[in-house]
Amino acid sequence: MDCGRSAQNSGGVDIAAIGRTDQLADNLVSDRPDLQGIRRRRDDSWGNVIRRSRRDFGYVVGAFVISVLGFVVSLPIFAVGAALSWAVVGLFILLGALIVAGGFARFHRNLLAVMGYQLSDPIYPVGGKGVRGRLRRLGHAQSWRDLLHVLISLVLSLLTFPLAVTWVSIALGGVTYWFWSRYLPEHPGLATLLGFPGVLVDIVTNTVIGVIFVMTAPFILRGLVSLHGGLAHGVLVDQKSELRQQVTELTVSRAAAGDAELHTLRKLERDLHDGPQQRLVRLGMDISSAQRRLTSDPARADVILQEAFRQSQEALAEIRTLSRGIAPPILTERGLQAAITALASRGTVPTTVDVPLVQLSEATQNAAYFVIAESLANMEKHSHATSCTVEIRLAGERAVLTITDDGVGGAAVSKGHGLAGLLDRLSGVDGLLTVTSPVGGPTRVTATVPVRPRLA
């Protein structure tokens, strides 16, 4: 009997031995967490491939639908506008075609953003007064590129959509051919047409083809998405227009910053003339009057000197208030951290300061100080707060300034409010400002400014 078993093992396959080997492998994996991690990573990688392929296929289908709709809607409007372009109404119809095409271009940008292709959003010209002003977009190059993309994307989608559907259909149909082929009427299969008759051969042939298409489908679908991304980047992103737009934005922001500085200086001159200067003039007159009365009327001279002292204190307080908008020497000598700490210590509302050492340019540092100084000044004047916090946090290549108080709220960045000037000052250093201040509080002023890169 033992000899028979040995002959059976030597001449065939021992199923029990294979089962014991598989069980041994499973036990080994269960006892080794590192091997479990390898198996999980392998499963996760296959899952990622399947999910990515599903997204790619969905994008190709979505791009096809948007391209067809864009062509059906935009091109007829453009055709009517072009036919009537000799009249003013035709120009407005052309403008409508460009606006519609821009909307479909935005749909394509959003779809590509989901797929990981980030395309910059153009800034379209705003219509002005009169017919010429309202038709300004007709002279915008990017608007015509959007219309061109409607036509080119349809041509590309007419190629990629059938290819993607065909590839996925062959892949899924091939690997499941063994199941649904039994419901087909009698017909010569693919293997029979190739000269290999037989049902089993036909199933094996279709299954192999299906597996090949399944294995190559992720690469094909990813390639089709890349084609759409490359086309969109070439047509929807105008590098020259984008550079001109950046130059225009920088010019406007620098001009706004200059206007803000000039407005601040003029306001400071006016406030100094109307406030501390008048008090100091009166202070000099009071001291001169007290000197004349020192011998003849000492009591009256003492009253005048007390009033002069009060005037000097009020003038000093006004000068300190006005100096909030001017960079103090401590900011230049010891940095933003020390300057904000000194600024908060002079306030009447208890303020907690959490400001680390950050690398800012001189202009950005001055803007940050002014934002915090103006926010604290408005908080003390209007908020009726009992506490305040000033924080600076690094977020990548930007510094986030946050000033929060527990006051009554109601602050707004609008003309006539103290916070209005902060927008222009921050725009000069590529900064942003947001104010959250519901009625009842709390108020949070958040500003972001660029951080100067560290030198290696």
Share of helix, binned: 55-70%
Gyration radius over CA = 38 Å
SSE sequence, one letter per element = HHHHHHHHHHHHHHEHEEHEE
Strand count, sense and closure of the main sheet?
5 strands, mixed
The low-confidence runs, each spanning 5 or more residues with pLDDT under 50, are 1-22, 28-43
How would you classify the helix and strand content by structural class?
alpha+beta
The global form is elongated
The overall average pLDDT, rounded, is 77
Strand content: 5-15%
Distance between the termini: 81 Å
How many helix segments?
16
E-strand count: 5
Cross-sheet strand order for the largest sheet: 1-2-3-5-4
Task: Please provide a written account of the structure.
With 456 residues, this protein is α+β, with helices and mostly antiparallel strands. Helix content is 69%, strand content 7%. The chain is elongated.
Question: What is this structure's SSE topology?
Answer:
Layout: H1 2-11, H2 15-31, H3 33-83, H4 88-114, H5 130-134, H6 141-175, H7 177-180, H8 190-193, H9 199-236, H10 239-274, H11 276-293, H12 298-322, H13 329-334, H14 336-345, E1 351-354, H15 362-383, E2 388-395, E3 398-405, H16 420-427, E4 432-436, E5 443-450
Helix pairs in contact: 2-3, 3-4, 3-6, 3-9, 4-6, 4-9, 6-9, 10-16, 11-12, 14-15
Précis, in short:
With 456 residues, the protein is α+β, with helices and mostly antiparallel strands. The protein is built from 16 helices and five strands.
Keywords for this entry:
16 helices; alpha+beta; disordered N terminus; 456 residues; 5-stranded mixed β-sheet; elongated
